[in-house]
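Hey,

Quick one before I head out. I ran the complex with magnesium ion overnight. Inputs first:
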Amino acid sequence: MSIKISLIHKKYNNQKALNDVSFSASKGEIIGFLGPNGAGKSTMMKILTGFIKPNSGTVLIEDIDVLQNPLEAQKEIGYLPEHNPLYTDMYVREYLQFQASIFKVDKAQIEACIEKVGLTNEAHKKIHQLSKGYQQRVGLAAAILHNPTVLILDEPTTGLDPNQLVEIRTLIKELGKEKTVLFSTHIMQEVEAVADKVIILNKGNIVFKTDMNQLKATNKSLEMLFREVTS
Ligand code: ADP
Ligand code: MG
């Protein structure tokens, strides 16, 4: 298994954010992570990437225990956080060089990543000069610099215009050919277009999970299902 989460429980002070969440992903699978605001998606992703600790439960990434061995596990993980924290005064290439130096990545990787995410014609610009769609590409490039096997993308298409949305979606699908991807979104069509599996979280509980193929066979739209299990 590429991702294996078992019985994750997380409380912020007295507030329960995740309640015994378990799921797994095989190598190369793309998983759409859905849920209303406040459901616990970002919390789950921060735990998966070792940024925060759960109260209990285990997280394995490529069989490495994230809680015991966060640095080893993080070598396998590319993470695009919810608000894509970029240094917007930096040039694209300069920012990626900076990231590469932090993670001790071979500089040769930088150009390959710039090309992979379609930033070749923008790499000489300052990040704040780029559209939101291209800024997301910078975040994605930074996430894949160290060639991780697992990508965790927290709402990668939120705030994009319809064209950018399709472009980033295509890019996620492309990256998913060689990596395991868990991405959160509020857009049902995105999950239908990109994901192999869907997981729906509500109030810290997994309320639904299925294969997209099985879902298609039921003739129910994901939107109907989402409403049923979360409202
Ligand atoms: P989602 O990403 O699905 O919108 P979050 O994981 O951000 O959900 O939040 C889950 C719940 O945990 C929410 O009720 C939220 O208010 C709460 N929460 C998130 N981060 C914190 C924090 N740092 N301190 C206290 N409560 C938090
Ligand atoms: Mg969130």
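The mean pLDDT is 94.

Talk tomorrow,
K.
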